[in-house]
Write a structure and sequence with these properties.
Two copies of one chain form a homodimer. Chain A has two domains: 119 residues, DNA Polymerase III, subunit A, domain 2 (DNA Polymerase III, Chain A, domain 2); 157 residues, Proliferating Cell Nuclear Antigen (Box), CATH 3.70.10. Helix content of chain A is 22%, strand content 40%. Chain A contains five helices and 18 strands. In chain A, helix 1 packs across helix 2, helix 1 runs antiparallel to helix 4 and helix 3 packs antiparallel against helix 4. At the A-B interface, helix 2 and strand 9 of A face helix 3 and strand 13 of B. Strand 9 of chain A pairs antiparallel with strand 13 of chain B, so a sheet runs across the interface. Chain B binds a DNA duplex (10 and 10 nucleotides) through loops. Chains A, B: Its main location: nucleus. Chains A, B: This protein is an auxiliary protein of DNA polymerase delta and is involved in the control of eukaryotic DNA replication by increasing the polymerase's processivity during elongation of the leading strand. Chains A, B: Keywords: DNA replication, DNA-binding, Nucleus. Chains A, B: It comes from Panicum miliaceum (Proso millet).
Chain lengths: 298, 298
DNA sequence: CGTCCAGGAT
DNA sequence: ATCCTGGACG
């Protein structure tokens, strides 16, 4: 009836499950673009503070057919729901019909128990209009931190358990100085600080924590963005964080040699945003003090 | 003081817990009838679309005494609450006193921690008037589907996570054709379809999916009824679904050789009910299209 | 602001 | 199947 124009087929259901669970809290919809070279996904959150880009080369798919490019916006919550229904070893087929330009079909096949699950997703938002993602050079960043994603997740977990002071969106202050990276959050009745030192290369050849610093930098982020990236960071062993006081920070997770997922997160401006009050400045001030304290200890 | 007229005693607290949790959402009250041969329970939902019948032979009870028959209507939500308080290994005693014709006493005994819990339930509704349940022959149905209850539950779960379009009661279209059964639901921004093929007997001697079809059939049901039955279907490994465009569908769960729980559910009539609008017809139409599409693929 | 119910994760 | 977390309602 209709010709099949696009049919990437892949086995890693878990991969997309993880991605969708990570994204769907924060991002309502995403722009998907399938092309001969692979998949590119982009989304921006409602407050336009964070932007996520996922790139997955065709080789990442078990089987990838793509006759012509297809660009579409999809609702992420619905997709997450759909993928939750899938078994881990299902074969997934994504199909768009030739003349059917407002719907895409995801099929989950479970050969052994003879079950075929099919979802049609309506296109949403501004289809065909991918976001403009600026390309920054590594050299533009004041500090670049690499660490095991497990470590990053642990830090986020601590911060979010502690940093909820109840009266505003929890934030974290990330500072890099003297080959260490510090995460600071304020809770109801105290503060929490995690300092990660650069690992000695002799100690741990695998999973090192590396800190390249051109200049000290200290930035404030909403914890919710960190948490979302933290979920996504299960996709790889290592995360990379690029920090600059001038540019959006980049939190990146490389997916083998097959692609990456990257969050561009604008730091909060102290006093610049309506919901940053005196308290925010006090935190920043304390933070500075602690910096100085650390230096004294050395 | 009063003679104990009825004293069925059983250990399977979990059994009744499950039944009550399944029923109490949908059915306000149920008619209980204890007789020498066992228990029969019947209930009809407020919109009179679904009817449930539970039959449990005396042998299903650990210990069953019944001097004379007792017929009573009881509030299911209250009973569910009571059973929630019971431990799984409690001994339950149901007692009605001779001259006490408007109350029944449920006692939960936990021998090890010496706790006795007692509930008195007032009779409600039209006591002594069981519902008329028509007896249909299997031969009257256009299609009979048997499948593992786990599979049925999975399908219901999928449908209800996806099929909530927000603006009306979620429904499912169940179709049988060509030795497959298809469940279709529409969500906010897409649709979900599950196709179950008949399992090959060589593949899985246990827990097969069997489809006996005399004629293709496609029916619309409110998801809430399916979900209620889905909960009850934990009582057995296998469920049986009898479908006909003329009769109420029967969803049955056999309880070993000891009884069964059976839902009689009237399908929605397209266009016949006030809350079936154009959309419903569109779904049915799409559904038909998909049917035809499937056929072309064969 | 606290309570209750539903959904998801272990 | 149970427990915990998040969201909705009173």
């Amino acid at each position: 009836m209709f010709a099949t124009m696009l049919e990437p087929r892949l086995v890693q259901t878990t991969f997309f499950k993880n991605v969708l669970e990570a994204l769907s809290d924060l991002f309502i919809e995403a722009h998907f673009e399938f092309s001969r070279t692979g998949l590119e996904l982009q989304a921006i959150d409602t407050s336009r503070v964070a932007l996520v880009a996922l790139v997955l080369r065709a080789e990442a798919f078990n089987h990838y057919l793509c006759d012509r490019g297809l660009s579409m916006g999809l609702n992420l919550a619905d997709m997450a729901k759909a993928f939750r229904c899938a078994n881990n070893d299902d074969i997934i087929t994504i199909k768009a019909e030739e003349d059917w330009t407002d719907t895409v079909t995801f099929t989950f096949e479970s050969p052994e128990d003879g079950e075929i699950l099919e979802f049609d997703f309506d296109f949403v938002g501004s289809n065909g209009v991918p976001l403009e993602i600026p390309e920054y050079q590594e050299s533009e960043y004041q500090a670049i931190v690499r660490m095991p994603s497990a470590k990053f997740m642990r830090i986020c977990k601590k911060l979010s358990s502690f940093g909820d002071s109840g009266d505003r969106d929890p934030v974290v202050i990330i500072s890099v100085y003297k080959e260490r990276v510090r995460s600071f959050a304020r809770g109801k009745t105290g503060t929490s600080t995690t300092v990660c030192l650069q690992t000695q290369t002799v100690d741990k050849p695998k999973e090192p924590t590396l800190i390249e610093m051109k200049e000290e930098v200290s930035l404030i982020f909403d914890l919710k963005y960190m948490n979302s990236f933290s979920k996504a960071s299960t996709l790889s062993d290592q995360v990379t964080i690029n920090l600059s006081s001038e540019l959006p920070a980049v939190f990146e997770c490389k997916i083998a040699e097959l692609g990456y997922i990257r969050y561009y997160i604008s730091p909060r401006k102290e006093g610049g945003m309506q919901n940053l009050g005196d308290e925010m400045q006090r935190i920043a001030k304390e933070d500075k003090m602690q910096n100085e304290g650390d230096e004294m200890q050395n």
